[in-house]
Design goal:
Winged_HTH_dom; Winged helix-turn-helix domain-containing protein
C-alpha cells in the first residue's frame, strides 16, 4: 500500500524500490499492477504456496498420533518418527498422499522434527564392541606418524640443505 501511495505521488518505480528496500523488478511489477487495476490490484492475496491438504481437525489428530509414538502404529524396531514414516501414516489414516519433504514441512509446522534412526543390527552386543574398541583397535591402529617429520608444503618435502634462494653452482659473490 505504501508503493501505491508513492505511485499516486508520481514517484518512479526505481525510487519506490530504494525507499521500500525491495528489488527494482518488484517495484516495476507493482507499478504495472497499480496502473492496470489501482490500489485493489496491490492488495495481498494471502500466503503463497499450496494449501495444506489436511484440515485443522486432521492436523490435530495427526499430532495425537505422533504423540502416541511409532510403536503404536506398527514401527517397533525403534522409537523415532522419520519423515517417510509420517508420510506413510498420513496415507494410512487420512488417505492423503504426502511426499517425504512435504511430511517434513508438516512435522515442523506441528512442532515436531523428523528423526534419523540409528542403523544398528538387532543382535549387536555392546560389551563386545567396547572390548574391540579398547583392545583390538588399539593394537591394529598403530602409533601413527612421529611428530616433526611433516612438511608445510603439500607437494614437496621440506629441504634441510642450503638456504632458500640458493641455487647449485651459483656463487653469491
Amino acid at each position: 500500500m505504501q508503493a501505491a501511495e508513492l505511485f499516486e505521488r508520481r514517484v518512479k518505480p526505481s525510487e519506490v524500490a530504494q525507499r521500500l528496500r525491495v528489488s527494482v523488478k518488484s517495484a516495476y511489477q507493482w507499478h504495472q499492477w497499480w496502473r492496470d487495476g489501482g490500489v485493489q490490484a496491490l492488495a495481498s492475496r494471502g500466503p503463497s504456496g499450496s494449501r495444506c491438504r489436511l484440515s485443522p481437525r486432521y492436523l490435530a489428530k495427526l499430532a495425537g498420533y505422533l504423540e502416541e509414538g511409532p510403536a503404536a502404529h506398527g514401527w517397533v524396531e525403534d522409537q523415532v518418527w522419520t519423515a517417510s514414516r509420517v508420510a506413510t501414516l498420513i496415507g494410512r489414516k487420512f488417505h492423503v498422499s504426502y511426499s517425504v519433504s512435504g511430511a517434513t514441512r508438516l512435522l515442523h509446522r506441528l512442532g515436531f522434527s523428523p528423526q534419523v534412526p540409528a542403523r544398528r543390527v538387532a543382535e549387536r552386543d555392546e560389551q563386545v564392541v567396547t572390548v574391540w574398541r579398547e583392545v583390538t583397535w588399539a593394537e591394529v591402529k598403530g602409533p601413527g606418524r612421529p611428530a616433526g617429520t611433516t612438511s608445510a608444503s603439500r607437494t614437496r618435502q621440506a629441504s634441510t640443505v642450503g638456504r632458500p634462494g640458493d641455487r647449485p653452482g651459483v656463487s653469491a659473490e
